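Possible regression after last week's pipeline update?

I re-ran a chain I had predicted before the update to compare outputs. Posting the input and the new output here so someone can diff against the archived version. Not blocking, just want to make sure nothing changed silently.
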Amino acid sequence: MTAMQMTGLRLDTGWGPAVIDRGRVVGRSGEDRAANRRRFLIVDPQAMVRHGLALSLQSRHPGGSAYQAATVDEALILADGAGKVDLIVLDIDLYPATAHVAVRRLNDAFSAPVIVTSSTADPAAALACLSAGARAFLLKTDPGAVLEHTVGLILSGGDHVPLPSWLISKGRMISREEACPVAPLDRLTARQREIFSLILSGCSNKEIARKIGVLEGTVKVHVRAMMQKLGAANRTQVAVMAARSGLRPDL
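New output (post-update):
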C-alpha cells in the first residue's frame, strides 16, 4: 500500500470500536461523490476479522467507511453518533441461543439490513435470525464471492437473496417444524415462563438466578423441565419457538 493510499486511513489499534474511512471519492469530472459513500457496521469479536472484512468491503465500495464493534452492546453505543448505516454484518457465534435478539436489537437501533455470519450450519439458528429480520445467513466458510454477491444484492435494493443450500432439502425449504417442532407455551408454569422470557433476553443461568432470587441449580432444573415440555433440545430451539410465536423478551 503506497503512502497516497494510506491517506485518510484511521484505525483503532485497541479492541474497542473503530472506524476505517478512506475519504472522499472524486469522479473523473471532478464531482465530489462523498455523499454517496456506503457506511458499514461490522460486529465481530475478533479484531483481525473485523479489520479484514472492513478492508474487503471498502475495496468493493471505494470511499466507504466501516464502523467496527466487538459486541452488539458496543455497536449500540455507536448508534447515536454513527449516522446512517447502509448494511450490518453480524457474527452470531457469541450468541448461540439469542442470535435473533441480537438481530432485532441492531435492526431497531440502526434501521439497516443485517447479514448474519456463523461458523455453524444450524437451521434452527438460521430460521430464528431470518424470522427476526436478518436478510441473509452466511457461513464463515463460504467463499468471499458469496458475501460480495449478497452485499451487492442488498445494497442495490433487491428484495431477495439466495438461501444457503443446507436450508434446502430435496428441492424444498426446510420448514420451521422440521428445524424445531412446535409446542404450546401454555404448558409452562408461571416460573418457567418467567425463565423463558429471561432466556430470550440473553441471560445466562447465573444471571437468571440473580434476577429471580433462586440458586443457579434451581434455574437449571427449571430450564431442563421447560425444554422437555417444549420438545426443545437446546436454547437455540427455544429461541426459534419464541420467534415463531412472536413472543418478545419483555413479555
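Follow-up from reviewer: compared with the archived run. The mean pLDDT is 75. Marking as no regression found.
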